[in-house]
Amino acid sequence: MKAIWRLTRRKADMISLANGDPHFTLYPIRKLEFEVASVEDGVLDPVSSWRGAGASAPSQSFTTTTHSGTLPLKAAMQYSAGAGLPDTQRVVTDLTNFYHSPPDHVVTLTLGNGDGVSKCFRLLGEPGDHFLTDEFSFSSLTNAPLSHGINWVPVKIDNGGLVPEELERILSNWNEEQQGRRPHVLYTVPCGQNPTGCTLSVERRRKIYALAQRFDFIIIEDDPYYYLQYDADGNEGETFKFMPSFLSIDVDGRVMRVDSLSKVMAPGMRLGWITSSALFHDHLVTLVDSSTHHPHAFGQVFLTEMLSSSGWNISGFDRWVRSLRKEYQRRRDYFLRTFYQEVSRTGLASANAPEAGMFVWMKVHIDKHPRYRSDVQHTNGSKAKTNVEELMEELFERILDGGVVVMPASIFVAPSDLNKFDSDDPIQDRLNFLRLTFAGQEETMQPALARLAQVLKEFFADTK
Amino acid sequence: MKAIWRLTRRKADMISLANGDPHFTLYPIRKLEFEVASVEDGVLDPVSSWRGAGASAPSQSFTTTTHSGTLPLKAAMQYSAGAGLPDTQRVVTDLTNFYHSPPDHVVTLTLGNGDGVSKCFRLLGEPGDHFLTDEFSFSSLTNAPLSHGINWVPVKIDNGGLVPEELERILSNWNEEQQGRRPHVLYTVPCGQNPTGCTLSVERRRKIYALAQRFDFIIIEDDPYYYLQYDADGNEGETFKFMPSFLSIDVDGRVMRVDSLSKVMAPGMRLGWITSSALFHDHLVTLVDSSTHHPHAFGQVFLTEMLSSSGWNISGFDRWVRSLRKEYQRRRDYFLRTFYQEVSRTGLASANAPEAGMFVWMKVHIDKHPRYRSDVQHTNGSKAKTNVEELMEELFERILDGGVVVMPASIFVAPSDLNKFDSDDPIQDRLNFLRLTFAGQEETMQPALARLAQVLKEFFADTK
């Protein structure tokens, strides 16, 4: 059918009786107006001006009508291409070039991060394939390809995120006869990883990319927290340098970068994009055409106007995200100060300052618990040597009873056939972590952490 | 993770440190305004008032802000449920009840028709399964489940659409030992079927539903043209009765109805819904959660305001679609009058008036062509007895050269292992149809049909 649409250009005065496209005069909508935060030069810190001042905060508006605007409704509301409307692709390409200057890549619009990542999985995997990922990862995404027959190979992480040497060890020792085709895909979140909050250093990124070249695997770089990177002293402000992405160092076209606006605009946007080689782009579009079809017009209109001179422009977007980065850094610092005062002081838990994202990965010093055991023989076939899993389940329940909701490490364990990998050091013995966020309301952080500390003290005293 | 979210309700003063949800004060958008066609009582024929009067056409506006509106941005722009925001589900449920009064069903929002249908396919099919469908169907949808290993079983259609007796014959004769599991899914477009324009009569619908009960199959009712049903004399207007849908007669919960706004609002909306049993709904939500995630906020805000008292309300929507129905009926009638004058008069082609939708299925009287043969022995393994396929390819090329784009029947053949089904009456011998649309610009219909007639005359004279 697409081939036929192309044929419509054969002659200059071709008339089409081919498609069931409603005429734009029959769309019942003719004007769309958005009022957004101002990022004008005069506004020094756009995010704090915006959130502090409520209805009186400086704003700017843009309007799209049937025939006017950067992306008029006449074009936006019609059936369109799976990769997105050309104007929207253009602004998103400009944005990607601004931050990553990829050598030779094409953007494909998505319906947000979950859609983008699951389309990459779908595109790259055949039933029976193995994909690599961080041993703790965001389960709603790693669960996605299971029904398609993908198996996960968890890679160990430390405070600095995925450990390149562990990756190398897995791939070097891979036995295709016993284990099937060697993993050809690594899925990773390089900044403020969910749930551990880790950020890969430039050095680790280069090492991992070199391994990708050596073992010929593709890197799915899922980077929703890219713009929420923090500096050491909190003072770098406008000159802050964002960490180079995998995309920016990709000379082979082996990186598929998934971008999202959920964390820097709003989750309801449900519009993001994948940046990849032209080859993967073509396949992605085919996949879009047989599943979700083209992205929604309202979001594409918003994004196109927003990133054009009618809205923020890319320079304004950059001012917004830099201001937002500082706002989240302030929240992180406030959260950590409170955490140190309330929780670390008990000596029963600790946490590192995350360099990006929204999460603190709290380590519970579970070996101090009076009922901790390291010589357990499980009857259910588990290779775990400790009772960490049981104790952490108990702690989680007690924290809930204490009036705080946290996320236990157990729900982030990458789903895999655990007996196949690292049975000498099973992840069940390393579940003594809780994911906490500093993205929520600041007013509740202190009481929440005080409750958490109280529960820890009672739990480790084995009372209540 | 969902189970944990539910636990947040355990205590009244629970504090959450669980989710990475940006606070609504950090969304850079605070106001969204839409200007839409007026459907006030004073406007007798909303569609013709709207399209005729341009910028001076009567309109109405609605505004949503962070805290005001039927669905305020504070709630709409956050992460939400896969089934859609509760307010949006509510208006869509009201709309479905208004037209179909289903006995016991639940709605799940989709990202438009393609997404809805392909999610149904994905939910209901396992690799190796057979699904039933109209022998000519919309290829971009029937291609979707092929990569998941679904096989299509084409069911013959006549002027009245899918033939119940053919369906019964296929199912009665099904041999599970030779052919695998008997088809448990029928995918069909009951109104203005794409590409044939056929509409199933009430009687056929009841027969097909009875077969579904007897052979225990599920009906995927894909009904984008439901609101574009036409009456015989064009005078019924406001009292026109829409045909009862499969959903409205579904007592068993075996119908999954896919609704779309592309044809009655605009294709760029990319928001629709599936109405199904609660059981299928639960599975659909799981599928949404591991693929596209929740639907986009801008569309949900628009639809919620539009179908509430802030916008059209359901009564206004009904006035719009009834007016739109008349508008398309006028176009259909104009198109057909021109077709009869220009094309039918040649005696080389004919067409029936479609009772719904946007398409005319033009039959080419190919057996009148001097090079038509009905005793062909193909060397490529085809069981076709005629050279219809070759002649129609030639005609299609000539029509393009003549400056008109149409859709050939060949691209709508349901993809299947043709040798398996009806090898005595292969569809290749019945490809003498072209799909024409009357949805496009009226000004070009007459010249297009005149050109088409001219090409037909030359082709059948075997000249040029």
TrEMBL record, chains A, B:
Record's keyword annotation contains Transferase: yes
Cofactor(s) needed for function: pyridoxal 5'-phosphate
Keywords for the protein's UniProt record, in alphabetical order: Aminotransferase, Pyridoxal phosphate, Transferase
A Pfam family that the UniProt record links to this protein: Aminotran_1_2
InterPro entries per UniProt: Aminotransferase_I/II_large (IPR004839), Class-I_PLP-dep_aminotransf (IPR050859), PyrdxlP-dep_Trfase (IPR015424), PyrdxlP-dep_Trfase_major (IPR015421)
Domain Aminotransferase class I/classII large stretches: 95-452
Top-level taxonomic group: Eukaryota
Family: Belongs to the class-I pyridoxal-phosphate-dependent aminotransferase family.
Name of the protein in question: Aminotransferase class I/classII large domain-containing protein
Native species: Somion occarium
